[in-house]
Specification:
This protein is mainly alpha-helical. It has helices at about 1-50, 60-80, 85-100, 110-135, 135-145, 150-180, 190-205, 205-235, 250, 270-290. This is Amino acid ABC transporter permease.
Length: about 290
């Protein structure tokens, strides 16, 4: 129990002396995660759409060549950035450009956004491709039947439905980015985890500062999960629906019943059936009398 009291005392001491630095670190983490996720989703949607453009053997050879080339390039991009750690991607992108004679990055912020965005785009490309494929092919055929081209079909029919299907994956990537931005310290980007490393270097209070980091990251991810679930429910609409049959016009459409004859779907009692038979016999006898 005494150790927990000491831990609480050390945490309070750290927050009292360094709370502005922790808050700035959280702010940098959130901004980087949001911006990189948005850009990554744009990259992923572009790659997913390009990767699903159909072509047929009867299409011009040039068209088939370029579509195959695009798919190969996207495949290489996805495999490279999904198959390597983000920390090494940051090293290659931030330090590799000057190493090969390129210009220096204008700021560490720009480099961090590019690294996280490209990494997110690689994961989103496959998510978008899967979301597009999951839509019933009949939707595409129906859109083509009414004269839509591929672009109109994607923007008006397929992507709105695919977006709802991949929304959980978008949220998952955002939460991952909140945590994975911690590796940006390797390019001197100061975010939440980088400030923790700075504090530890000053006072060697590693575990109390790590506890603050753990609680901070957990709070960020829990709040993000709550917001994303709320957004999913908003997109799904209301849970309760009134059946169309509740409309009186709908109930009456095509079910008009003759006052005496009824409809084939009526379940009449025996008395009512006998009454209808007598009415039909009387009507028939009166008709014969007139003749």
């Amino acid at each position: 129990m005494e150790r927990f009291l000491d831990l609480g005392h050390d945490i309070v001491l750290l927050l009292k002396n360094y709370w502005p630095g922790y808050l700035n670190g959280i702010k940098s983490t959130i901004i980087l995660a949001v911006v990189a996720t948005v850009i990554g989703c744009i990259i992923g949607f572009a790659c997913g759409v390009l990767n699903t453009i159909p072509y047929a053997p009867q299409d011009p050879p040039l068209k088939r060549f370029f579509l195959k080339l695009i798919r190969v390039i996207i495949r290489i991009y996805v495999e490279v950035f999904r198959g390597t750690p983000m920390v090494l991607q940051a090293v290659f992108i931030y330090y590799g450009l000057p190493y090969f004679g390129g210009a220096q990055w204008p700021s560490v912020w720009a480099a961090a956004i590019v690294v996280v965005s490209i990494n997110t785009g690689a994961y989103m490309a496959e998510s978008v491709r899967g979301g597009i494929i999951s839509i019933d092919p009949g939707q595409t055929e129906g859109a083509k039947a009414i004269g839509m081209n591929h672009f109109q079909t994607m923007t008006s029919v397929i992507l709105p439905q695919a977006f709802r299907n991949i929304l959980p994956q978008i949220g998952n990537n955002f939460i991952i980015n909140i945590k994975d931005t911690s590796v940006m310290f390797v390019i001197t980007f100061v975010e939440f985890f980088a400030f923790h490393r700075y504090i530890v270097g000053i006072n060697l209070m590693y575990f109390p500062s790590a506890t603050i980091e753990m609680v901070g990251y957990l709070t960020l991810t829990l709040v993000s999960s709550f917001i994303l679930r709320w957004l999913e429910k908003r997109l799904d609409g209301a849970d309760s629906y009134e059946l169309a049959q509740a409309d009186q016009l709908t109930m009456a459409a095509g079910t008009y019943s003759h006052p005496n004859r009824g409809t084939p779907f009526d379940e009449l009692s025996k008395e009512k059936q006998e009454q209808n038979k007598k009415s039909r016999r009387n009507r028939n006898s009166s008709t014969r009398g007139e003749l």
